[in-house]
């Protein structure tokens, strides 16, 4: 696992904001479900999350650098929608110092391609 401030580097998100984002209802569930590309509607339907809440959580997770827009796809209704995938597989928080520090295991592009081929 890499260590340091990965999740907050260059994002404008500080440690407290990141913890708040992760603590919001549904954030962790969205990250777990987004191991493969999924639209907000797919995530909402899969987890039974209200669509407006799902969009808010996705926006927060993208701003924190934990989720990224991977592209666009056609929905069942024929509309182009963004699809999202998480950017990491593991995240640990160390509270032993005055400021939390983070360790993470990022998702590699190779892992994403392999997983896409398996689906």
UniProtKB/TrEMBL annotation:
Cited InterPro entries: ArsR-like_HTH, WH-like_DNA-bd_sf, WH_DNA-bd_sf
Protein name: Helix-turn-helix domain-containing protein
Pfam family, one: HTH_20
Highest taxon of source: Archaea
């Amino acid at each position: 696992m890499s260590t340091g401030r990965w999740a907050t580097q260059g994002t404008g998100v500080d440690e407290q904001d990141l913890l708040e984002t992760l603590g919001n209802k549904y954030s962790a569930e969205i990250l777990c479900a987004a191991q493969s590309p999924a639209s907000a509607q797919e995530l909402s339907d899969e987890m039974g999350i209200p669509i407006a809440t799902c969009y808010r959580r996705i926006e927060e997770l993208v701003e924190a650098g934990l989720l990224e827009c991977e592209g666009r796809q056609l929905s069942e209704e024929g509309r182009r929608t963004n699809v999202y995938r998480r950017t990491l597989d593991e995240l640990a928080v160390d509270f032993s110092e005055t400021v939390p520090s983070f360790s993470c295991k990022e998702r590699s592009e190779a892992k994403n391609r392999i997983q896409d081929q398996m689906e």
